[in-house]
Each structure stands twice: as C-alpha cells, then as structure tokens.
Amino acid sequence: MQDTKPRDRIAGLVLARPDRVLGMEPFMADVVQGIEEYFAGRRCSLLIEFTADVAGEIEIWRRWVAHEYVDGIVMVDLRSDDPRLDELVRLRTPGVLLGGPELQAPITNVLVDNAEGARAAVRALADLGHREIARVSGPRDMVHCQARDEAFIATCAERDVQGQVIEGDYSEESGREATRQLLTGGPMPSAVVYDNDLMAIGGLSVAKELGVAVPEELSIIAWDDTAVARLAHPPLSVVTVDVHGLGAIVGEAILAAMDGADVTTYHVPKPTIRLTQSVSRAVITHS
After folding, report:
1. Nearest to residue 232, comparing CAs of 207, 273, 201?
2. How far apart are CA 149 and CA 172, in angstroms?
3. Band of the pLDDT at 225, cuts 50, 70, 90?
4. pLDDT in tens, 199-218
5. Which residue in 110, 94, 114 sits closest to 102, CA to CA?
6. What is the pTM (predicted TM-score) of this model?
7. Three-point CA angle 32, 230, 172, nearest 5°
8. Transcriptional regulator LacI/GalR-like sensor domain spans which residues (predicted)?
9. Burial grade of 257 (CB within 10 A; 0-12, 13-18, 19 or more)
10. On the CB side of 1, how many CA atoms lie within 13 Å of its CA?
C-alpha cells in the first residue's frame, strides 16, 4: 500500500553577503533560531543557502522552484528597486519579507520600525550631552538602512546634534575602517552608533589601538542585542529588538503564507535602547 502521508514543508532562505562577511552574522543566526523553534513540531523545516549578491539569490530561488525543493521563500534585506519582489510574483511561490515597508510589497511582510531605533539612539546620546554623533551604516541600497539614515539625520537636527554617516557592509573589517576614519580624519565624534554588533566590535578594536578610551572618550551603541554584543569588553549598549522573537514571527508568517493566507503585515514591538558600560555622559571640553 502506497504511503500517502504528506511530506514536511520546506521554507527557503538565501543570504546574500559579501565575501568578507563569512557565514551567518549573529543577528541572522538568532532570527534563524527563532524560525526553527517555531517550525518545531509543525512539520516544517528551513533550507538556507549563501550567495554573493541578489542576482545569485534569484538564481537559487529559480533552481529551488524548478525542482520543487521549497514550498515558500523568506526574503530579507529589501533593496531599492529590488528585482526579487517581481521574481517572487513570477515564481508564484508563497513568500514573506522580513523588514519591508508596510503595504508597499506584494507579499506578506514582518515590519520592524528601523526609524524608531535610530531616533531612540540619538535621543539617548543627546540626553547624555553628546553633540557630535556618527553612524556607521550597513549598505545604503538596503531599505532598512535608508530608513535608519534618514531618522538619524532628522533626529540629530531636532536635538541640535552634529551627525554624520559612514557606509559599511556589516563586516567587522568595515567597522574598523569606518572607525579609523572617524577617529583620525578630523574632529572626533563623542559617540558612534553602528548598524550591527560586528561593526561595533571592529570599532572597539580600533579605539583601543588608537588609545581612545571607551566610554570615557567615545561612547558606542550597536544595533541588535546579541551574545556578541553582551560578551564584548565593555559590553555594548544596544538598540534592542527581541531578535529570537522576531524569527518566531517570521516562522509564523511563512507557514501562514504556505497555507494560503492573504497578504498582510506583521508588526513587532518597537526597538528600545539598553545602555551599558559602552556609553557614558559626554565630556565637555572648554577651549
């Protein structure tokens, strides 16, 4: 007698990362853990592949769909004029976008308020007397980085803070390069906000190398409350979102999409700031 038991469903996730961002960064590792925890006991598993760019990601999607390897696709890191949205529609595969703009995508999305996280970081530092604050962003073609950039600059203006933005690529090395530029290229900011924990770790190492004390001379805030941030020396102040919980919401969303649910937006709690030993009150110098 033929076994008619339905097979487990598979959701696919492709991570497009530059060569020097090796493997899965801590934020995405926590998201994946949350997805897989939600899938546990629900006859669903997660397939993950890595590639260098969006074009490679689309090729992997096409291969998956052609061979019926996946039943749904999780998409991350929406870009400006992103070709992946149209490709998902063309492939007729259920999909979920993590972090997309509300009601502007043709697929279900899990919305993170990136702008509020950037505003909260500037406010926290301004309240401690910081008047020159830098931001080391992720790649500026990513929509969530653009939202953070715009909110950062606007909030700096509101709080009479001199703000500047330097682009990184989420790697520790780019954090080192950006920090060296900030600490040696002119008037030094009293605080830096990094778009992820790895770039902040790179910043810590350069500050130590140059003899800039953290937090006495330089305050640091990193995006994402991960083990890497908590184990840094000093422990990093963070823009915190429940990343594991975020992954669980993504897992819920893609399962619903594979079950034929209507396109919708899932909201997650707004980011907050947790200040630790990497931030202190600004030192006011008088000439």
Report:
1. 201
2. 20
3. confident
4. 999 999 999 999 999 999 99
5. 110
6. 0.90
7. 70
8. 122-272
9. buried
10. 3
